[in-house]
Design goal:
The structure holds two protein chains of two kinds. By secondary structure, chain A is α/β, with parallel strands linked by helices. Chain A has eight helices and twelve strands. In chain A, helix 5 links the parallel strand 9 and strand 10. The chains are: A alpha/beta, B mainly alpha.
Chain lengths: 241, 364
């Protein structure tokens, strides 16, 4: 049986009077692909931020374990150093630097001075960014910036990849390419995808965790979850097909 | 795999030709001009460079950078008075501001203080230093042989001397050369820092600090380090200023000094190393020239210049000039390309015309 790579124990997060994450116990095994879905305000992004250190938490919020380490209260850079690649909801790239420079900064920490160059070349080729490599990332379209941010994750060759709404604002063709990329990443790493685009989640396959009002509503295979009446009621509603 | 410098263009490049030419000019300057004013301008340029490095490349704006300039000056004055020679005082004048900046920087950056509050903290630190030093009149405020002297400051401390030889003073032209060497040294150190992985990570922090953290870099550590390096340079400038002026006063920590250096950096060009140097030399010269007249207040003119620069040249003098030159180059390249295309088209047309003439010639 493969090892547990992410584990949250009784994780809660409150903002004033709003309980954004309510006692969530989330587990993910090595090389597993899991989609975290739920309607707006379900607590997906908050849970994501608690796991990545983007929200400061302490032991009163519950605990987060990544690759066997209790990372509760750790800063994002410390969590990343455990082999975690993170893509945030809004493309978080260095707009004033070129695509090449962005990728180099990502590759440099893992692969060292000499190893960074071939790694950047590999990722540029894999993502088809050759024509954009000298352009500032700020000049690229939204979808291309999403791809660059995924490139930043790829350069780090992580063991766990957390992607927050990777399909937001991208075209159909780009979505196909993205699914292909995520499946590629999943060959080597466990992947958590936070999204509410049901078609994209279907395309990804894997298992699904549904969040509702900060708590886990259901977990299971994509089809089983999609066909569950309770899920349809709280999430998909009468638009469900 | 492509060359490193070519790939990493955002850090700027070392233009060795320009550096050598400017260095030669600066070295020959004493043969033509009195060095008193150029020495002061060089010190200001070094001070501006220290802020320009930190602000332009790491995105950290200190509203109280004069604190480290003043700290360097006071540290030098107090230490040299106690030791009777300048070598240890010189080193301490660089190390103490660096150390203090590292403490304040660590507190701000690890404490995740936002940019606005960071500006307030740096400003308040500078004002506290000015206020404190101004309140040190009387014998009770002495460090060893050095009386801090309140608003009157500390006069008559030993000026810089050749290391190990307190009797050989560095004054006049030698002080000018020392300032030039310090300026070039700090410029080259800054260039080296920017071309290193450390400098590139700083650029990343300037662009998107949270992304740099998500790549696994400890951003507060990098920011603390550059803050400390910048303070060390400001301290060096303060030490040189103390030796040039032969007196240090609380005004060195003042708000005016902090604001002036910000204006020099903005006017010269943020995000370049030469820009702040140029800004300090040009605006410093203007300040000195305006200081000789009583018709209009000096600070009004400097303020008006800042407003004009922000409105007309928002990127500053040097980046605007560089942009203009790049545009000219691109125009001349496209003109040359058009000319060669026209020539080639003409060459292709000519044989046809000749053939037509032959035909008509044949017909006739």
């Amino acid at each position: 049986m493969s090892e547990m790579i992410v584990e949250t124990r009784d994780l809660s997060m409150r903002f004033g009077g709003v309980l954004a994450v309510n006692n969530v116990n989330f587990n993910l095994r090595e090389r597993e692909l899991r989609c975290l879905i739920g309607p707006n305000g379900a607590g997906k992004s908050t849970l994501f931020k608690c796991m990545t250190g983007l929200h400061e938490i302490n032991h009163s919020n519950g605990r987060v374990f990544i690759r066997g380490q209790d990372v509760t209260g750790w800063r994002p850079h410390e969590i990343v150093r455990l082999g975690v690649g993170i893509k945030t909801q809004v493309p978080s790239v260095m707009n004033g630097l070129t695509v090449w420079e962005n990728l180099w900064l990502s590759a440099r920490r893992i692969h060292g001075k000499n190893g960074a160059y071939p790694e950047v070349d590999r990722v540029i080729e894999e993502l088809g960014l050759q024509t954009h490599m000298r352009r500032n990332v700020g000049e690229l379209a939204h979808g291309q910036r999403q791809i660059v941010e995924i490139g930043l994750v790829l350069c780090q060759r992580p063991k766990l990849v957390l992607l927050d709404e990777p399909a937001a604002g991208i075209t159909g063709a780009e979505a196909d390419r993205l699914v292909e990329l995520i499946h590629g990443i999943n060959q080597q790493a466990a992947v958590v995808v936070v999204d509410h685009d049901m078609n994209f989640v279907r395309m990804l396959g894997g298992s699904v965790t549904v969040l509702h009002q900060g708590a886990v509503l259901m977990e299971g295979a994509t089809d089983a979850v999609m066909n569950n009446a309770k899920v349809r009621e709280v999430y998909i509603g009468n638009r469900a097909k | 795999m492509i060359g490193d410098a070519a790939n990493f263009s955002s850090a700027g490049r070392t233009h060795w030709g320009w550096i050598i030419a400017i260095s030669l000019l600066l070295l020959l300057l004493p043969a033509v001009f009195d060095t008193n004013t150029p020495t002061l301008l060089g010190i200001w340029a070094l001070f501006a460079l220290s802020l320009g490095l930190m602000w332009g490349y790491a995105g950290i704006l200190s509203f109280g950078h004069a604190a480290y300039f003043g700290l360097g000056a006071y540290t030098y004055a107090i230490t040299s008075m106690n030791l009777g020679e300048s070598t240890a005082a010189w080193m301490l004048a660089i190390l103490l501001p660096a150390f203090v900046a590292a403490l304040i920087g660590a507190m701000m950056f690890y404490g995740r203080i936002s940019d606005v509050y960071m500006g307030v903290i740096t400003l308040v630190f500078s004002l506290i230093m000015a206020k404190f030093m101004g309140a040190t009149a009387g014998d009770a405020y002495s460090i060893g042989n050095a009386r801090l002297g309140g608003f009157n400051g500390i006069p008559a401390f030993p000026i810089l001397n050749v290391p190990g030889d307190p009797s050989t003073l560095i004054i006049g032209v030698p002080l000018y050369y020392l300032v030039v060497c310090c300026l070039i040294f700090c410029y080259l150190i800054s260039r080296w820092v920017l071309s290193s992985a450390f400098g590139r990570i700083l650029l990343g922090i300037r662009e998107n600090e949270s992304r740099i953290e998500l790549l696994g870099y400890n951003a507060p550590a990098y920011k603390t380090a550059i803050f400390s390096l910048s303070a060390a340079m400001a301290g060096m400038a303060g030490c040189l200023f103390a030796s040039w002026a032969e007196i240090v006063t609380p005004a060195l920590f003042g708000l005016g000094q902090s604001v002036e250096v910000i204006i020099w950096v903005i006017a010269g060009g943020l995000g370049t190393l030469m820009g702040p140097v140029i800004g300090a030399v040009l605006l410093g010269t203007m300040k000195l020239l305006l200081g000789g007249q009583t018709f209009i207040d000096n600070s009004l003119v400097i303020g008006a210049i800042l407003v004009l620069v922000v409105l007309l040249l928002p990127r500053g003098l040097l980046p605007t000039a560089m942009g203009w030159r790049k545009q000219q180059d691109q125009r001349s390249v496209s003109r040359a390309r058009n000319n060669s295309m026209r020539r080639r088209t003409g060459e292709r047309r000519q044989p046809r015309a000749t053939a037509g003439q032959d035909k008509s010639g044949g017909q006739s």
